[in-house]
Automatic annotation (TrEMBL):
Functional pathway: Cofactor biosynthesis; NAD(+) biosynthesis; nicotinate D-ribonucleotide from quinolinate: step 1/1
Keyword Thylakoid: no
Pfam families: QRPTase_C, QRPTase_N
EC number: 2.4.2.19
GO biological process, one term: quinolinate catabolic process
Functional description taken from the UniProt entry: Involved in the catabolism of quinolinic acid (QA).
Protein name per Swiss-Prot or TrEMBL: Probable nicotinate-nucleotide pyrophosphorylase [carboxylating]
Family annotation (Gene3D superfamilies): Aldolase class I, Quinolinate phosphoribosyl transferase, N-terminal domain
Similarity field: Belongs to the NadC/ModD family.
UniProt GO MF annotations: nicotinate-nucleotide diphosphorylase (carboxylating) activity
Assembly, per entry: Hexamer formed by 3 homodimers.
Reactions catalysed, as given in the entry: nicotinate beta-D-ribonucleotide + CO2 + diphosphate = quinolinate + 5-phospho-alpha-D-ribose 1-diphosphate + 2 H(+)
Gene: nadC
Length: 277
């Protein structure tokens, strides 16, 4: 789900403040009454994402600017394709250009990367999920981009889901103790998941009533064994060591979910350019 408009506006305001500061000296080289038009062009194939942020940048810089999109959010675009036409004062177009493109390039990169993984496992029932490994300040934006690419969101933050990891288990004393404490603590709208590294740990988690288990860095043999052991009693999520060369085989083990940090962490911005007419 796309973040609420006021959250997008807040993100954009912060981005513009760090970029413009007290003024854009270079744009002031242009006469204030100069009107211009520009197009944004894709230099490579991608899944387009981030139109709301792009539009909001121009709106905050100058609400006289008009952005006319030629493609829809989530649409696959090709190299040399024109994405939008921008009309308005030349100074405003120049001032907004970098921040607007930053959002569009970054979020399109997340959506594009996600789509690659989703397509690789499309022949299975496994679903691609993101993680909390996001760029600071862009958590909601990047998680939205994952959904545009066809993926699903893991917990948004620490507030909407409990993920019991190795250190939590050590501090609590045992897997069963950690799960019992979580069940007592969590309200109905907070999910509970526990991470295990071995089949023995999975057995303990299932015996303690776990209904969602993250299988951390398990090999394919252990993943298959985990699926056979859990049956329909728990949702199983594979994590760790996942890339484009391994995700297909991981999905084919029968796990329900595969979480991938690099969807939002190790991205390369999509090559887009803005050109004045």
């Amino acid at each position: 789900m796309i973040p609420a408009p006021h959250l997008i506006a807040s993100q954009v305001a912060a981005a513009l403040q760090e970029d413009i500061g007290r003024c854009d000296w270079t744009a002031m080289l242009i006469a204030p009454d100069t009107q211009s038009s520009a197009t944004v062009i894709a230099r490579q194939s991608a899944v387009l994402c981030g139109q709301a942020w792009f539009d909001e940048v121009f709106r905050q810089v100058d609400d006289e600017v008009q952005v006319q999109w030629m493609v829809k959010e989530g649409e696959c675009v090709e190299a040399d394709q024109v994405l939008c036409l921008i009309l308005g004062p030349a100074r405003s177009l120049l001032t907004a250009e970098r921040s607007a493109l930053n959002y569009l390039q970054t979020l399109s990169a997340v959506a594009t990367e996600t789509r690659r993984y989703v397509d690789l496992v499309a022949h299975t029932s496994a679903k691609i999920h993101d993680t909390r490994k996001t760029i600071p300040g862009l958590r909601l934006a990047q998680k939205y981009a994952v959904t545009v690419g066809g993926g699903l969101n893991q917990r948004i933050g620490l507030y909407d889901g409990i993920l019991i990891k190795e250190n939590h288990i050590m501090a609590a004393g045992s897997i069963s103790a950690a799960l019992a404490a979580a069940a007592k603590l969590a309200p109905a709208d907070v999910t509970i998941q526990i991470e295990v590294e071995t089949i023995h740990e999975l057995e303990q988690a299932l015996h303690a009533g776990a209904v969602s288990v993250l299988l951390d860095n398990m090999n394919l043999t252990d993943l298959r064994a985990a699926v056979a052991l859990a049956g329909q009693s728990a949702v199983l999520e594979a994590s760790g060591g996942v890339d484009e060369s391994t995700v297909r085989e991981i999905a084919e083990t029968g796990v329900h979910r595969i979480s991938i940090g690099k969807l939002t962490k190790d991205i390369q911005a999509i090559d887009l350019s803005m050109r004045f007419a």
